[in-house]
Amino acid sequence: MLVALHWLLALGLIATLVYGFFGMAPRPNSDPQKIGMLRLHMAGGMLLFAMMLVRLIVRMSTSHPPPATSGTPWLDRGARAMHVAFYVLVLLMATTGLATAILAGLNEIVFAGSGAALPTDLAVYPTRVAHGYIAWTLTALITLHIFAACYHSFVRNDGLSARMGFGSRRG
Ligand code: HEM
Questions:
Q1: Which of 14, 65, 107, 114 has its CA 20 to 30 A from that of 131?
Q2: How far is CA 161 from CA 37, 82, 87, 115, 158, in A?
Q3: What are the φ/ψ torsions at residue 165 (nearest 5 degrees)?
Q4: pLDDT in tens, 127-144
């Protein structure tokens, strides 16, 4: 369950970030397709948040392999902080996105089909600005996470990445 959720979340988060940065953000709110794009993004974002909560609950309530070490204490502390940061950042992504939607009345426009026009620019809401900065921070963290996985696989060659596979637990 943890492994499946890890990969579903990895794919979902990367797809949502790419869609947000390159699909939605550059498109003006006057574009007729924007409401449909926001519907997909907002529903997908809430689903990812729910999956992250399920993952946290499963993580806390099941047994898992002993903590892995990189051989360097400060790197181990960094790795622990990185994993906590993932939960915090996804929580902040969802709450700032939801807060923007509530402030701008997007729920009625996007999901209830009120027929009202979208606000011209969502960046007037501080929560929208924060959503963008947190998205960049999450992108940086995912990049760092991928580098760390490569470090274990190709530099230390310790088989740690096998924990994220469905086979036996090593590393
Ligand atoms: C983990 C989940 C989420 C991720 C990774 C994510 C990612 C993004 C990204 C990358 C952008 C563009 C940022 C920029 O260019 O400054 C964006 C915009 C936006 N997101 Fe999210 N988001 C998530 C969840 C949500 C949720 C749950 C909602 C609302 C319920 C939401 C509502 C919005 C809105 C309204 C915009 C602004 C679109 C615009 O200005 O055109 N997001 N999101």
A1: 114
A2: 35, 16, 20, 49, 8
A3: -105, 175
A4: 999 999 999 999 999 999
Distance CA 94, CA 100 (A): 10
| Best residue for ligand 1 mutational test, from 8, 9, 13, 24 (most atoms within 8 Å of Cβ) | 24
- Rounded CA gap, 61 and 16, in Å? 28
> Residue 90 burial by CB count (10 A; 0-12/13-18/19+): exposed, middle or buried?
buried
Strands (E), the chain: none
Closest protein CA for atom 21 of ligand 1: 97
The answer to whether the predicted template modeling score (pTM) of the entire model surpasses 0.85 is: yes
**Do 17 and 44 meet the contact criterion of CB atoms below 8 Å apart?**
no
Q: In terms of Cα–Cα distance, which of 161, 130, 138, 129 is closest to 15? A: 138
Tokens representing 92 are 């902040």
Contact call for residues 5 and 51 (beta carbons, < 8 A): yes
Q: How far is the CA of 20 from the centre of ligand 1 (A)?
A: 6
Kindly report, residue by residue over 8-30, the tens digit of the pLDDT. Answer: 999 999 999 999 999 999 999 99
Residue nearest to atom 11 of ligand 1 (CA): 20
